[in-house]
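Folded chain entry —
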Amino acid sequence: MMCASIVDPEFHDSLAAYLLAWADDELILGHRDSEWTGFAPMLEEDLAFSSIAQDEIGHASLIYGLLCTLFGGDPDHVALQRPAASYRHGALVERPNGDWAHTIARHYLYDLADAVRVEALCGSTYAPLAGIARKMSREEQYHRLHGEMWWDRLANGSAESRERLIAAVHEVAPLALDILGPTEDAGNLHEVGLLPGSLAGRSAAWRELTRPILVGLDPTLACLIDREPTSRDARPVGPTFSEVYVEMTMVSASGLGERW
């Protein structure tokens, strides 16, 4: 059994790849969520999405901090001063917000995938990683409740809101599954308990959570998640990330603010 406070150097590269992808997911999604501030359909959602964005960016900060504690470097530099091509977030989180239904579909399906990821990490043999996961789990529960509330509201509201949600799910559901895709040599992490469980098990858990929700909206949507997630390492940074990257790193690049 691996010591709870030490990571064998043999697993450094695979653990760094996993943590970076996870942190980048949280950072980019937080930035996208923050774009609703002042533009959400109602004032309470301005506040809600601002709070959710702050949580996601805070989670990214925790993960970058752990990454740098393990492997050296400065969390602010890793978060905001890397070249755009070095980010490893999933395609789902960099996509433009679209309409409200698109944002809610992404929000809820991402949070279900993240719940599976975080639940697994709560059992990590590496105590600092398990501690971060447990802290995030408590906050992410509120995000899921918020997403569930809005999903139900759109699905059972007007014919237009339901149609918009269905159209959004066609776009985002396959990308949400890819959040659970493997990173470099992730199998090594499973073997020693750094990342408990297996890729197949986490993907199956997400489908079990998600399939009834999709079928309840439209039975034909279930086929969107009947595949295996794609590798996180093979995905090039998408074209929509360029504008996000410029906005996200503007202050850091200006030299006016070195910390976030």
About this structure: The chain has a mean pLDDT of 91.
